[in-house]
Amino acid sequence: MNTEGQLAERDSSPGSEKEREGRSRSSHASARTGEPPSAGRLPHRPAWGWLTGGGRWRRAALLATACAAFVLLVSGFVLQPFLIPSGSMESTLRPGDRVLVNKLAYRFGDDPRRGDVVVFDGAGSFGEEEPSGNPVTGLLRKAAAAVGLAEPAESDYVKRVVGIGGDRVTCCDERGRIEVNGQPVDEHYLHPGDSPSRVRFDIAVPEGRLWVMGDHRDASRDSRDYLGAPGGGTVPVDKVIGRAEWIGWPFGRWSSVPRTDAFTSVPAAPGRIPSAAPGGAHG
């Protein structure tokens, strides 16, 4: 029998007629009720239905939670705002400024350079190790400080790097200037009227540590004040939180934190390879 005859026999089989009748009855029933054939099935919900459902307030709460988590993630690992509470870095930074600190600046093999403005944890070098307190209060304070809504921890400081590991930093030459590795430094960023230092010192900075000072020398508690503390007033490099890059608040102060070329002529410490790009919160 030819192929056309086989197809004809299949189309005219009893099973085929019953299937057509079933489809016809389903179609008539749908026409009478006004519902599609699949009306009795459960509606399909997309995988993200939990996010889009629940009304406007639920969506707003989920969005706010996601934004807060994103901000905390960024401030924890990339860019964190810090509130400047004192005038120790004037006129570069003023009380009330919120600076954005680049936490990745020294995470990939680069080290702080002379002239960098850095935020660091001074616990153990600028004071005793931070005492333990109420963990809930501490967590809330850290969360508020992470978005610049509260002052940083009492052990967090913002200062300018003056000496790095291996440097010899002394005060002062016959003109009252600080010397680094025998080279006088003209610190044009100092607060007007301040001298480079009213305290005499001669310090060899240990490897892996920093000698830091505020720009408002007459109002700054810095490495000079901790000469008798462990480390001789120097700060471990691994306690540096990041480099201050931008002033984000108030609006009228929007700008990058100025870099300085004051240390360009400073020679490398004996035994160290010169850097390819020399030198560039609490008070």
UniProtKB/TrEMBL annotation:
Top-level taxon of origin: Bacteria
InterPro entries: LexA/Signal_pep-like_sf (IPR036286), Pept_S26A_signal_pept_1 (IPR000223), Pept_S26A_signal_pept_1_CS (IPR019758), Pept_S26A_signal_pept_1_Ser-AS (IPR019756), Peptidase_S26 (IPR019533)
First-level EC class: hydrolase
Acyltransferase is among the record's keywords: no
Lineage: Bacteria, Bacillati, Actinomycetota, Actinomycetes, Kitasatosporales
Pfam families named among the record's database cross-references: Peptidase_S26
Organism whose genome encodes this protein: Streptomyces iranensis
Protein name: Signal peptidase I
Enzyme Commission numbers on file: 3.4.21.89
UniProt record similarity statement: Belongs to the peptidase S26 family.
The keyword Transmembrane appears for this protein: yes
Domain Peptidase S26: 60-249
GO aspect biological process, one term: signal peptide processing
